[in-house]
Design brief:
This is SnoaL-like protein. The chain is of the alpha/beta class and 150 residues long. It contains three helices and seven strands; from the N terminus they run ααββαβββββ.
């Protein structure tokens, strides 16, 4: 399968829509079966391994925290099957927002093989907005409010 920049972006945005749905099978469909999602040390008990496991973990986040994710910016390089995004993660039931970026590696088949997540700050439970200091998120068009819980 020939990857295109537009196709990579559409795949990642559709994956985020699946994450927001909380449907583990739908989430898993965007990954190779042995796909891996890496996180900073000490977060979430380590990497999520396997598309269905990734789906189940995001299902739990939606159910337990009202999680909702946005893709804020995208850069893709089809020649190397790599992409990077900036994202926002709203934990609506905790009134908390996290920001970060992720590096994606796509398989030859056009599915996600690997995600490496980098967070803008440690998850300090004393803060309600976990993001870069003194960065004008609103001024640059980033979301600053989560949609209401259903």
């Amino acid at each position: 399968m020939k990857l295109t920049k537009a196709g990579m972006e559409a795949h990642i945005r559709a994956y985020f829509d699946a994450c927001n749905s909380g449907d583990p099978e739908r989430i898993a469909s965007y990954f190779e079966p042995d796909g891996v999602h890496y996180f900073p040390p000490g977060m979430y008990g380590g990497p999520f391994r396997g598309g269905l496991e990734i789906g189940k973990r995001w299902q739990a986040a939606v159910q337990n925290f009202g999680s909702y994710w946005t893709v804020d910016h995208f850069i893709g390089e089809p020649e190397t099957r790599r992409a990077v995004i900036e994202w926002t993660h709203f934990k609506r039931s905790q009134n908390t927002m996290l920001r970060g970026d992720e590096w994606y590696i796509f398989s030859e088949a056009g599915l996600i093989q690997e995600i490496r997540a980098y967070y803008a700050s440690p998850q300090d439970r004393g803060l309600t907005a976990l993001e870069l200091g003194d960065f004008d998120y609103a001024g640059r068009g980033y979301p600053v409010k989560a949609p209401p819980l259903a």
